[in-house]
Each structure stands twice: as C-alpha cells, then as structure tokens.
Write a structure and sequence with these properties.
Blueprint (H helix, E strand, L loop, with lengths): L6 E2 L5 E2 L3 E3 L21 E2 L17 E4 L2 E4 L8 H8 L8 E4 L16 H14 L4 E6 L5 H11 L3 E6 L2 E3 L1 E2 L4 E2 L5 E5 L4 H14 L5 E4 L5 H10 L3 E4 L1 H5 L3 H16 L24
Parallel strand pairs: 3-4, 3-15, 7-8, 8-9, 9-14, 14-15
Antiparallel strand pairs: 1-2, 5-6, 6-13, 10-13, 11-12
Helix pairs in contact: 2-3, 3-4, 4-5, 5-7
Bound molecules: flavin mononucleotide.
Length: 286
C-alpha cells in the first residue's frame, strides 16, 4: 500500500499534508519563512484582507487565559490592492477563504455569517468571480450551522472552514480594565476543540461531498486525527503556531505515525469514520 500524507480536496486542490496554518497566525507567510520549512506545511491562510487597508486595533491585541487566548487585531492588513492584485496570477494562491465572522457593515448586523440569506449572497458573489476554489469560514457557534453549510455549498463555495472563533472578552481585576485595547474580541486555543469537533461533525453530515477544514483548538496530532474522524479533510493550526512555528510540521508527522499504526494509507481514510450508534439521528432534509 502506498502511504501518503497528501490530500486531494477536489477542483485541482492537492495539498502536501492536511495541516495548514490558520488565518492571522502567520501574517502573509513571509514572517515564518526563516523559522519553518514551508514546503512541509500543507498550506498557509493569509491574514484576512479587506478592500481598504486597515491599521488595526489599539493594543493590547492578545491576552492569555488558562485555556487559550482572547484577541482582537481589528483585521490589520494592507488592503486588497496591495495584496490580491499582486497574487491573483501566482500559482501558489490555490484557494480563497472567506472570513464571515465579522460585521455586515451594509446591513448593520454584528456577525454576517449567521444570516443564511446574506451568507449565500456573499459566498455566491465571490464564488462567481474567483479563479480558484472558495472556502467559506463559518462562525463555529452559529445556531443554524447545518443550514448555513448547505447554503454556502449551494451558492458555489467549494468547501468550508469550520470555524470562525466565538466572541470573548478579558477583564483585568487589578485595574478594572478590559484586557484588550478594543475591549471585545474572540477566543482561540484548546478550549475550542470540542466545539470545533461538534461543528465539523454537524456540517460534514449535511454536505458530505464538500471538503471541510477544521480550525479551533488543534495543537497535537491527536487533536488533528480527531477532527478528520469527525468529518474534516484537513486542519488549520492557529495559536499553536504562535507558540511553536514548527507545530504544523510536527502535527503532520504525528498523523503519519497514526496512519502507519492503524495500517491506513492516507488522511482521507480517516475522514468521517466516527462510529456513531445505529439509529443516531439522521441530518434533517432541507
Ligand atoms: C492573533 C490572531 C489573529 C487572527 N486573525 C484572523 C484573521 O485575520 N482572519 C480570520 O479568519 N481568523 C483570524 N484568526 C483566527 C484563527 O484563524 C483561528 O480561527 C483561531 O485562532 C482558532 O484556532 P486555534 O484554536 O488553533 O488558535 C486569528 C487568530 C489569532 C490568535
């Protein structure tokens, strides 16, 4: 049997390993190139790029908690013209990930990706224009996640990233001040793992044909394997990269070890293999 870590996500998207670096945790990639051999990383999702350049939030932008980090960057980035125009024609740009956990400024809603009609509209518009496959990064705590997943795939998304982290704040008792400059932010890190697992599991059952990237709380090969078993095709590593830039390489190595131990050929052999009891509720028909 030929054993490989490569994963085929369809539409010509073949990654050398199923372990990518999550958005916002390695800038646009340049920052990491001296610290880790990027050829051994499955892929890198750049920080979110907006239409106009953004200066980002006032500091502090990150605060530690016992179970992860609370953060808000205010999406600091150079703007689409300094970024996408320059990279659209580059072969290494293999996909677009749509960040849908931010506000819908036009309709004045806090989280765009919680509204099915609007999410479908935005995902459809991007998918029609994009030259590469589009992944919709849905908020992992969205109440109607299965319906959102279906709407994104129906609108033309090639796959899903599950998911955008939940909202959070930090409070400093000593000073009575918020831990973050922008006051409110998001939660990342180990605390998210079970929430991510459930969201991946639910989404994979309603759109089994679509590749899912799991992100939130993955910091070991075991975490990554669990995400694949729950229904993901690949995983993304966020805050664990801030601690150890080589984490994605180590995690991929650990997945290879697990496959060998189980006598399996590829990460895809693990996908959605969770053994649920006979009669466990079927996903509802749309
Ligand atoms: C400092 C920081 C910046 C981030 N910036 C972005 C971003 O620009 N766009 C985005 O979609 N997610 C962003 N994220 C969220 C991560 O991509 C990921 O969803 C989250 O950290 C959960 O994964 P983890 O538990 O492995 O850290 C950021 C996370 C951190 C910690």
């Amino acid at each position: 049997m030929k054993r490989t870590l490569a994963v085929d996500l369809g539409a010509g998207l073949v990654l050398p390993t199923p372990v990518l670096i999550a958005s916002g945790c390695a800038g646009t990639g340049k920052e990491l190139s001296g610290l880790v051999d990027l050829r051994k990383v499955g892929g890198l999702v750049s920080r979110t790029i907006t239409l106009d350049a953004r200066k980002g939030s006032p500091p502090p932008r990150i605060a530690e908690t016992p179970s992860g980090t609370v953060w808000s960057t205010g999406l600091q980035n150079p703007g689409v013209h300094a970024f996408i125009d320059a990279v659209q024609t580059r072969p290494e740009v293999v996909a677009v990930e749509l960040h849908l956990s931010g506000p819908d400024e036009e309709l004045r809603r806090d989280v765009l990706g919680e509204h099915i009609d609007r999410t479908g509209e935005i995902v459809g518009a991007v998918a029609r224009m994009s030259l590469v496959p589009v992944f919709a990064k849905l908020p992992m705590t969205a109440t109607e996640l299965p319906e959102l997943a279906r709407a994104c795939i129906r609108a033309g998304a090639h796959g899903l990233t599950i998911g955008g982290p939940p909202p959070a704040i930090g409070v400093v008792a000593g000073t009575l001040r918020p831990a973050l400059g922008p006051v409110t932010g998001w939660m990342s890190g180990p605390a998210l793992k079970p929430i991510t697992l459930r969201a991946v599991f639910e989404a994979a059952r309603v759109v089994p044909e679509a590749p899912i990237m799991a992100v939130g709380g993955v910091r070991s090969a075991e975490d990554a394997v669990e995400m694949l078993i729950a229904g993901a095709s690949a995983v993304q590593i966020g805050t664990a990269v801030l601690v150890d830039p080589a984490a994605p390489v180590e995690i991929a190595r650990g997945i290879a070890g697990y496959l060998k131990e189980k006598g399996l050929g590829t990460p895809d052999d693990l996908r959605a293999r969770l053994r649920v009891p006979v009669g466990f509720r079927e996903p509802e028909e749309p």
